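Side project, low priority. Logging it here so it doesn't get lost.
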Amino acid sequence: MIKITVWNEFIHEKKHQKCMELYPNGIHSAIADFLNCEDDFTVRTATLDDEECGLTEEVLADTDVLIWWGHAGHKLVPDEIAQRVVRHVHNGMGFIPLHSSHASKPFTMLMGTVGNLSWRESGDFERLWVISKAHPITKDLPDYIELPHEETYAEPFGIPTPDEILFIGWFSGGEVLRSGLTYKRNNGKIFYFQPGHETFPTYYNKDIQKVIINAVRWAAPEIRTEKIEFPRIPVTNQF
């Protein structure tokens, strides 16, 4: 079984009517609902309101893959919680930051950059092109995914060069973005995925769900350690 924790700041869904209508139980619950349909997944959820943001040492140690959705509450996540997430990723926990999580503390700490990008909130059409058909995350997907409305994200995207680019998002305003990216940090696998604005029903799209399901299986740990250690090289007198 792959043990998944879906984390969501859970702010918009309690304040904005459109978000309440789309995700009455929160984006985290909508994601957990389709993940729970997979026989090999066990899913828990956590939010900013939980003690220690729901991300205690015990929870993270029992999490194979952490899915993260954040936007308005990036600064409300304590540094020590973000650093705890980063440490567990280095130790082998998979990490899937979604949409505005490009600016979340864990993602920016793992990237070493601020993760800035260009954006416009106007409900543009997005065509999400699959550009790596042989990757496990793109398995059983069509050539592209069409989203009638999505927040426009665009280059330049202030991130390190990805290990792999799996999706390119094209928007009806002409903008493009590297929209699905993978990284490796020590033992941990990371997949950033751009779609998922809170005022659009993106997480009810079956192809978007398939991407996240595939990404969970890809990001599940191959090796999990309690802490990354670098052994000291003994000094010799050969010279």
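Brief comment: The CA atoms of residues 78 and 198 lie 23 Å apart.
Revisit when time allows.
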